[in-house]
Amino acid sequence: MSTTPRNRLGELERAVLEHLWTEGPSHPEGLTVREVHDVVGVQRDLAYTTLMTVLDRMAKKGLVTRERDGRAWRYTAAASRDELTSETMRHALGELAGTERRSALLHFLDESTPEEIDELRAALAALEARQAPGSTPRGRHRRQKVT
Amino acid sequence: MYILPLALLAMALAWPVPRLMAGFTSFRRAPRAALVVWQATAVAAVLAALFTAPAAVPFIVRQQSRITEHLGLVALAGVVSGLVLARLLVAGHRVGRNLRVVRKRHRELVDVLASHDDRHLRVLEHPTPTAYCLPGLSRRVVLSQGTLDRLPAEELEAVLAHERAHLAARHDLILEFFTVVHEAVPPFVRSETALREVHLLIEVLADRAAVRDVGPMPTARAIVDMAGGGASPAGSMAMGSTPSAAKVRIGLLEPARIWGLPVPIASALMYVFAGLLVAMPVTLLSMAFAGFLVT
């Protein structure tokens, strides 16, 4: 469970965005801080001003966009969930090349090479043969001589 | 007169040595020692370049009358040291800032998209298998749903152990150091091969952690499964002629000798070599000043 304040804030931003995503189709003009607070804030027992600050931060991060409506702001999600997910994946898969981008994230596998998969399977089989008990390199050598 | 040896040392360590060392593939069997040797090479090259100008100081002071004779050489030393220092500071600042901007933006996206069941682990709803970590103070390990669907539990454990090793040992700082040095030197000196070798060594080191956790076979299978599933990224550095990192890593999962020597002995020799590398520029500068103080 997330307990640090920083993590709770991240979780709250996520809840706010989820709410904007679900309400988006029925409220194309966006939601006010009050409307977001009535659902997300009340559930979590948070002050109105907390939601105001969170939405303001999210606008600065470019996660939500806002438009003035009289004296209040109306907030909408800046991108759909799918759009954000593909942006993240594009970012993660390193399409934005460059030395620094490559070292920004440390991947389990930097370059995925599906065309090489047969070679990799062969390397795996060779390792398995060496790892299997009773088939030390000497043992394998002997067997080769017999056949 | 220690300006010339220092300048030559800087040049040798910046250009031919990294290209030569990238060819010593046996080094990969002792990844930690190999990384130390690589770092020592970079540090020694930087020190040698920085020391050329200070080495000229005793020379100037002692032979005041004839300084004009060697003005060219002394000026060159000053320019080299100054340039190296300036370029390092600029590159360090730029690389550091860019890395932090990219990581921050990515962390914001990941945090808002993925559930927070675990403090550091995030799962992205995407079918393409991918696994990586975001280093830094608020670190994250990120897996895609595609990875969770594709890998059995044991292989998943290998991937997580690998990423946790990156984060725990702060491999990002090693990489950042080499990226800074790489960017600081003029393009004709840069060696992509050397940078890629360092990258590979870091992966081999993280693989060792996975092998300790789950053994070589699940780790090898995880590498193969991750390699087969992903879409090849546009900026991929896969080269047809050289074996890919994945294949090399599978070959390095079990212990083996280095040049016929047991790994601990080879590692010890490599550490000594690394020490000698850094000692060279330091010794040359001390000799320049020692001669000055004695006379």
TrEMBL record, chain A:
Keyword entries, A-Z: DNA-binding, Transcription, Transcription regulation
Family: Belongs to the BlaI transcriptional regulatory family.
GO molecular function: DNA binding
Claim: Transcription regulation is one of the keywords in the record: yes
Stretches with biased composition (Basic residues): 138-147
Superkingdom of this protein's organism: Bacteria
Keyword flag Transcription regulation: yes
Region Disordered: start-end pairs: 128-147
Transmembrane segment boundaries: none
Taxonomic path: Bacteria, Bacillati, Actinomycetota, Actinomycetes, Micrococcales
Organism of this sequence: Intrasporangium chromatireducens Q5-1
Protein name: CopY family transcriptional regulator
Alphabetized InterPro entries for the sequence: BlaI_family (IPR005650), WH-like_DNA-bd_sf (IPR036388), WH_DNA-bd_sf (IPR036390)
Gene Ontology terms: biological process: negative regulation of DNA-templated transcription
UniProtKB/TrEMBL annotation, chain B:
Required co-factors: Zn(2+)
Gene Ontology MF terms: metal ion binding; metalloendopeptidase activity
Cofactor info, note text: Binds 1 zinc ion per subunit.
Name of one Pfam family that matches: Peptidase_M48
InterPro entries from the UniProt entry: Beta-lactam_resp_regulator, Peptidase_M48
Signal peptide: none
Domain (Peptidase M48) ranges: 103-175
Chain segments annotated as transmembrane: 38-61, 73-90, 268-294
UniProt family annotation: Belongs to the peptidase M48 family.
Protein name (database record): Peptidase M48 Ste24p
